[in-house]
Amino acid sequence: MNTSIIIADDHPLMLRGLSDFLTSKGYNIIGSATNGNEAYNLIVKQKPDLAILDIRMPFRTGLEVAEECFKNNLETKIILITFDKGEELYDKAKELNIYGYILKEFAIEEIEMCISHVIEGQPYFSEEIASYLKSSVPSAKPGEIQKLTKSEVKILKLISENKTSQQIAEILDISFRTVTTHRSNIVHKLNLENRPSSLFLWASKNKSLL
């Protein structure tokens, strides 16, 4: 795996544990930080593919680092890890196009799944967080699904099962680019916000209709 990652957490045990675990799994950890300023400077200097950030850190929080990256159009994708379950944090994360948001108590169990989704441009949220986010997503309007082609409905169903675009391409025996095009068309037809999480959350909430 050539995916470059930096990790930032002000808890030494968490930082070391996550770093050692991911290194043992073959990921390329190119730096670590214990506060938000160090984390942001590392992102600017090293330009990693992914940054795994604790939300609560000295100097800058993980959200503030993500906000700076968002404002400055940095391409590093952000995954936040947190003990916090406050709704306002999830809303802020969505605004900043954060790709991954996992709870610390599930970090080791979920981080590989999260990374594999984020690498492909798909969002990943811990189950508890996804439950909250789904409650703020609109239900399907009457006739809305009829606007979609059979292929688009198949893709939506697979998205609702947390399949990545690459997995969907393999299952349906189509190209990755075709899946991406379908996803874009579905977002347009359903009039969803153009954010990484929108399609997954809509599909999850309306799974019974697919």
Describe the structure.
The longest helix is centred in the last third of the chain and has 14 residues. With 210 residues, the chain is of the alpha/beta class. The chain has 10 helices and 6 strands. It has 2 domains: 131 residues, 3-Layer(aba) Sandwich (Rossmann fold); 73 residues, Arc Repressor Mutant, subunit A (Orthogonal Bundle). The model has no long low-confidence stretch (mean pLDDT 85). Helix 1 links the parallel strand 1 and strand 2. It has a 6-stranded parallel beta sheet, with helices on both faces.
Give a quick summary of the entry:
The chain has helices spanning 12-24, 36-46, 62-71, 87-95, 107-119, 127-135, 150-160, 165-172, 176-189, 198-205, and strands spanning 4-8, 28-33, 50-54, 77-82, 100-103, 124-125.
**Shape assignment:** globular
Q: Percent helix among the residues?
A: 40-55%
Number of helices, where a helix is a run of at least 4 consecutive DSSP H or I residues:
10
DSSP summary, beta strand count: 6
CATH topology of the largest domain: Rossmann fold
For the report, how would you describe the main beta sheet? 6 strands, parallel
CATH superfamily of the largest domain: Response regulator
Q: How would you write the strand order of the largest sheet?
A: 2-1-3-4-5-6
The CATH architecture term of the largest domain is 3-Layer(aba) Sandwich
Instruction: Report the order of strands and helices.
Output: EHEHEHEHEHEHHHHH
- What structural class results from the helix and strand content? alpha/beta
Radius of gyration: 17 Å
Q: Please give the alpha-carbon distance between the first and last residues.
A: 35 Å
Give the CATH class of the largest domain: Alpha Beta
Q: Overall pLDDT, averaged? A: 85
Low-confidence stretches: none
The number of domains is 2
| Beta content | 5-15%
